[in-house]
Amino acid sequence: MKSERNEGEEKFPKNAAGEVLVSDVDFVETYLGLEDLLKTSKVKSIGVSNFNSQQIDRILKEATVKPVVNQVECHPYLNQTKLIEFCRQKDIVVTAYSPLGSPDRPWAKPEDPSLLEEPKIKEIAKKYNKSSAQILIRFQVERGVAVIPKSVTKDRIASNINVFDFQLTPEDLATISDFDRGHEGRIIHLGWNGPNVVDHKHYPFKTPF
């Protein structure tokens, strides 16, 4: 199906069939537009989000400014080890969104696993007198990954930053890493937006990393 443009309007415009519309604009063209903004001094840094290694390679070949950051879903069920190492080799920072596995996501099913309730995570948390959330955040910190847990409560925000008074052991890190399920562990796969999205030529989640 031919892509339809609808930039500048609602966030997720849909066609008459209720399918989310997608753009046929090449992401490199968009990135070059960001480079133009950088030249105006109104923007200090530019980066990307949800880019796989092949897409980053295209940016590096066709653009003149390297992305500062690649923001991706990252948690123990989808630990992104290969992508993190790839970005590190390119001197690109990885930022982890949904580091707790998005437990409050509205599409979660009762039978879906929860990182916060994993017995091995809770066991590690008990050892350090920390919460499961703090262990998951510290996991990313020790991997050199920037981490952005979402919270709207003052106490939880304070708790999320209180992760710098302890250090996980190599055994702890290995235990947490073993939860990885590859693409099957992805929570924000965007599949609910319909085939227009998943079948799009730039859909980023079909490559190994």
Number of domains: 1
Q: Alpha-carbon distance between the termini?
A: 26 Å
Shape: globular
As a whole number of angstroms, the C-alpha radius of gyration is 19 Å
Order of helices and strands: HEHEHEHHEHHH
Corresponding CATH superfamily: NADP-dependent oxidoreductase domain
Approximate helicity band: 25-40%
Strand order of the largest sheet: 1-2-3-4
Secondary-structure-derived class: alpha/beta
Can you name the CATH architecture?
Alpha-Beta Barrel
Overall mean pLDDT score? 91
Number of strands: 4
CATH classification class: Alpha Beta
> What is the number of helical segments per DSSP (H or I, 4+ residues)?
8
Structural description of this entry:
The protein is an alpha/beta fold and 209 residues long. The protein has one domain: TIM Barrel, CATH 3.20.20.100. It contains 8 helices and 4 strands, in the order αβαβαβααβααα. A 4-stranded parallel sheet has the order 1-2-3-4. Helix 2 links the parallel strand 1 and strand 2 (69-73). It is globular, with a radius of gyration of 19 Å. The two termini are 26 Å apart. Residues 25-179 form the NADP-dependent oxidoreductase domain. This is NADP-dependent oxidoreductase domain-containing protein.
